[in-house]
Amino acid sequence: MKQRVYIETTVLSYLAAKPSKDAVTAGRQVLRRRWWDSERSKYEPVVSEAVEVECERRDHQAVGIRRSLLQQASLFPPDREILDLAKVLIASGAIPEKARPDAVHIAAASVARCDFLLTWNFRHIANVRIRREVETILAKHGYTKTKICTPEELI
User: Fold this and answer.
1) Phi, psi of 6 (to 5 degrees)
2) Per-residue confidence of the chain (155 residues) as pLDDT tens digits?
3) β-strand partners of 133
4) How far apart, in Å, do the first and last CA atoms of the chain sit?
5) Distance CA 60, CA 58 (A)
6) Please, which of 11, 41, 67, 138 could form a disulfide with 143 given CB 3.0 to 4.6 Å?
7) CA distance 14 to 9
């Protein structure tokens, strides 16, 4: 059985973006593409409706590309357990209120028992300090399976 990987919106956004002139961003785009093209098939990719909603924003050309990428992952709807866990992450102070969608991504990946939450969001998800806090909170609520990581950590 393949391990489940929750694909957070930033991964899809980098895949859909035009090649960047910034060296760091361009490097991340290459890593994302490499993971998507050669590693994704080793996993069962899943997304939540939160990802689907975020993929509909901004650049219309990128929206079309993100839609096609979404078709390559299983979609699961939000439910009360996900929304309640997201509230816990916010109420604890681990995730700020302004980053509610990020709390939903973490909660969705945890409730869906994904092995990994794949992200390039270093502000509120893959941030080492926040990750430690989030993992402690998730463990207190019985969610220990999901590991937050970047695409390069799964290559």
Assistant:
1) -85, 125
2) 899 999 999 999 888 888 999 998 888 888 888 889 999 999 999 999 999 988 998 777 889 889 999 898 999 887 899 999 999 999 999 999 999 999 999 999 999 999 999 999 999 999 999 999 999 999 999 999 999 999 888 88
3) none
4) 19
5) 6
6) 138
7) 9
Question: Hey, what are 131's tokens?
Answer: 């990750």
Amino acid at 110: S
Q: What is the 3-state secondary structure (H, E, C) of 103-150?
A: HHHHHHHHHCCCCEEECCCCCCCCCHHHHHHHHHHHHHCCCCCCEEEC
Ramachandran quadrant class, 97 (left: phi over 0; alpha: psi -120 to 50; beta: rest): alpha
Distance CA 85, CA 105 (A): 10
Q: Domains of the chain, with CATH numbers?
A: 3-154 (3.40.50.1010)
List 46's β-bridge partners, or say none: 6, 74
